[in-house]
Design a protein that fits this description.
468 residues; alpha/beta; Rossmann fold; Arc Repressor Mutant, subunit A; five-stranded parallel β-sheet; five-stranded mixed β-sheet; 10 strands; globular; Response regulator; HTH_AraC-typ_CS; cytoplasm; two-component regulatory system
Length: 468
Amino acid sequence: MIKVLIVDDDKLVRKGISSAMPWSEFNMEVVGEASNGAKALDFLKSQPVDLMLTDLAMPVMSGIELMRATKQLYPELHIVVLTLHQDFDYIQEALRLGAIDYIAKVQLEKEQFEHVLHRIHTRLTGLTSSIRKMPSTNEINVHYPNVYALVSQDRKSEQKWPVELTTDGDVIRWEVERNSWMWAATHDEQDPLFHQLKASLDQIPHSTLLVLSDVQERTWSQIKNWIMNYTEASLFYAYNPEDRVITVSMNEEEILLKEPQDKDIDRIKQSWFQTPWTHHDAYYSQLIKQFTSLRLNKGQLMGLLYSLVMEWNHLFAQTTLGRISMIHGFDSWYEVEKWIKQTAIVIRKADEQTSYSQEIIHAVKKAVMIMQDDLEQAYTASGLSQQLNISRSYFSQCFKDLMGKTFNEYSRFIRVEKSKEYLLNTNNTIFWIAERVGYTDEKYFSRIFREMTGLLPSEYRQQGRGVK
């Protein structure tokens, strides 16, 4: 039974998640609740937990601080983050700290409970599934010219090997890990085994047949580990349903998964928002190359895509530029790229609904991202229009039509929205926050904040951190 701890400062959220989700259907049990990070750490000291769902914005100790602490104290603990739509920067930090999944509270509806738990359970079992004990020949060198591995990218449901082989002689087969098997035949003729395995591909969803060469003088354990590493680091990106047989040498240099760096994440974010990749093949190819060169694992890639979608919808969902949908699930890069292509179509169709050219739409999107990326800078419509080589009056009209707010209204809006995040997620002074969102006068910032929210910054922080 997977033991679950729910951490959120909102009692109703905790009780709702605890009681409404079908935990038992996924072999899970909620064993505790905590209203902040400090209380969560106290609970973890007294009772073992396998999975922790945590909010990011909490008093006393935030979710990010809690994740940093548990990463050191309980490295085996798996974490799912509960988010609000505007938490883009904190999602990125959670990704770097190893969160395995993300749940947007605003999208958490009853009919999605089962889908959410299924996704988390799939991720969890994929990370912790046990490996069957290797046969007694585990440490005996392999003397066959080839070893075959049939690997399914589908981790949603456990597959069983569907057919018996009819080759002459003895055939060794065992399970490497969940939905992954390997074979070696004890006779010289390998073709019958290969052709039967190739024919079985249609009976195993999302499967690939690996033909491993240079296996001589290696132990079964070494081969098993190599298959597992290749599946995680390379096959995810190499899988192609049109070409399901891959011949690969065990002498090839091992490709290792990388930890995402800030500069790499920022480069993809810049390409996603500031280049016309949805309309031009060259920019699309550049974006795809940036994604694949990162070599992120599935969980990290899911987090990055989730962050991009959340940021896009946060910026444009309420405008004429439209909303995009998150990929529901994927087992390979092939499926991710298919989703990216479909997303490009959605964005192009939204652009076509406006009366402006694609170049003007791109210029407005670029202006939005320039402002979002440097809130300390006091950008003006005049300065940005000059930078984008558009007349100020035309730029102002386009901006209002596409974004639904005047340039000045939007500038105040994004600064206040960012200041809300700082107020709830940090203990920094009002003056510090004002400076970070482009206001050098604390009193002027407070006046703008109250005009837009009805509360002073200090009142907003107190109300947001009050007992619920």
